[in-house]
Amino acid sequence: MALLSGFRLPAADTSIPPVAQKFLAMFQDLREAQRASRPRYVSFALSDGEIDDYMRYALHAAPRPGVDSVTIKIFPQNYVSTFTVVDFDAIERWKPGTIPALLRPILRGKQSIWVDYRFAAANSKITFSVEKAYYDKIWLPALFVGRVIQIVAARQPEHYDTSKPLPLPFGLRQAWTENHVVKGNN
After folding, report:
1. Would you say residue 20 lies in a domain?
2. Domains identified in the chain, total number
3. Angle, alpha carbons 132-135-140 (nearest 5°)
4. Are 115 and 71 in contact (CB under 8 A)?
């Protein structure tokens, strides 16, 4: 006990919103479980509102190339609807010719697009498919949107390659959705 007498838990950082603290604590729990010598089960349930709040914080704290904001809505059966502000000029700089000529007059600069996708997550890997996408009321081909996602994902610090299954972080083994909630465990 004498060793602990001068020890204090660090005070909560008031510059980090409570929802971000919740996410960061969850990430830490998952990291610790992953490193533990004996397996330790960790599970989570996050509402779409919590994810929105965390994304707002995370994109402000560590901006992501090509993405200004993300809002999501979670539905059962691994269906997710997103509303994302994307920098189409950056995408075209990174991969000239990505934006079809017919769409170039409208998909330039920072624009909001609505993308619905379905994911499958099991055995520590995740895949997804674009179900539908729109800019305003203009339908965007899933193949095109998938390519935009691939280009933006490759520019992230993690260098994601969305053309193949992605590893789930922190030793997660599975993830799934229910109405307005995403759940997962290691």
Report:
1. no
2. 1
3. 45
4. no
